[in-house]
Amino acid sequence: MRLPNRARTKAFTLIELLVVIAIIAVLIGLLLPAVQKVRKAASRMSCSNNLKQIGLGFMNYESSRGAFPVGRVTTTPQHSWTAALLPYIEQDNVFKMYNYTVDWNNPLNQPAIAFQMKIYNCSSTPMGNRFDTTPSSPGGSTAPRACGDYSSVSALKTFVAFKCFQYSTTNPDDPRIVGTIVRNNPTRFADITDGTSSSILIAEDAGRPQWYAAGGKLLPTLKKEGGWADPGAAFSIDGSNPDGSTPGPCALNCSNDSEVYSFHTSGANVVFADGSVHFLTSGVSLCVLAALVTKAGGEVVDQSQY
């Protein structure tokens, strides 16, 4: 008597399995760059939104006070615009901790300046919540200060002033080279004769106190003040080189040692004096950036140039 044939189960051959694995690998290879691109775009948007809120805070401050906050106060008690703006960017809890009758780095202000301020940090910056523990002044405190990625651009340095406009001045307060908000003196709209839509108020100088060069390369030396409340975080542009040194012809993203710098792949965000946020592309020339920094230099810059 003949037994019926059992149904044979069909299985993948080795070649078919290898083909499936290869297809999955190709799909993953195509998908990962897309995911990374989306993440970078989201981080750039988050950074832009932070700066929009900061720009709105400046507008509200000016509306109630008649002028922008001082960029930095160099006489005792010393403070930065970042502390002055707190009530205008919905950070009343930190403002209530901050004591304006003493210097920013006084022990009384330690709880405030150690507070991580999401609005003052770009999510593209490595290391997330960072602290600056370098001396806050010669012989000063090394207590941790929470870092920030946005600073006021106070002036042009000698190299840029001469290279771009043939100014041979050594006076850091020369009205032709100073930025929108400066030390010790408030700025009114009437002082911005180049136009509020053509004058940078705040720019990214991300990653401090660590020192970075082009391409996000981390260099071995600590360089610039990183605390969000540190008045010394304001900077004057000198131009830089891809290795992180200054001065040089690179306008942005080549050094975060007192230069415009971000971890976005194709440029950096800035806030203009009208409160608008713009993304400066990496190809912008140093002299165009210099013209955007000054508030009363008399330069004319078209938006197509950046």
Describe this structure in words.
This protein has one domain. Helices cover 27% and strands 11% of the residues. A hairpin with a 5-residue loop joins strand 5 (211-212) and strand 6 (218-219). Strands 7-3-4-8-9 form a 5-stranded mixed β-sheet, with helices on both faces. Strands 1-2 form a two-stranded antiparallel sheet. It has a two-stranded antiparallel ribbon with strand order 5-6. The mean pLDDT is 89. The protein has helices at 14-65, 81-84, 92-97, 110-113, 158-165, 286-293; strands at residues 131-132, 145-146, 150-156, 200-204, 211-212, 218-219, 235-237, 267-272, 277-281. The protein is of the alpha+beta class and 306 residues long.
Quaternary state of this entry equals: single chain
Largest sheet: 5 strands, mixed
Question: Number of DSSP helices?
Answer: 6
Strand order of the largest sheet: 7-3-4-8-9
**CA-atom Rg in angstroms:** 25 Å
Kindly, what is the distance between the CA atoms of the first and last residues, rounded to a whole number of angstroms?
90 Å
How many domains? The number is 1
Rounded mean pLDDT is 89
What is the global morphology?
globular
Looking at this protein, list some descriptive labels.
single chain; 306 residues; alpha+beta; 6 helices
Briefly characterize the structure.
Helices cover 27% and strands 11% of the residues.
Secondary-structure blueprint:
Elements: H1 14-65, H2 81-84, H3 92-97, H4 110-113, E1 131-132, E2 145-146, E3 150-156, H5 158-165, E4 200-204, E5 211-212, E6 218-219, E7 235-237, E8 267-272, E9 277-281, H6 286-293
Parallel strand pairs: 3-7
Antiparallel strand pairs: 1-2, 3-4, 4-8, 5-6, 8-9
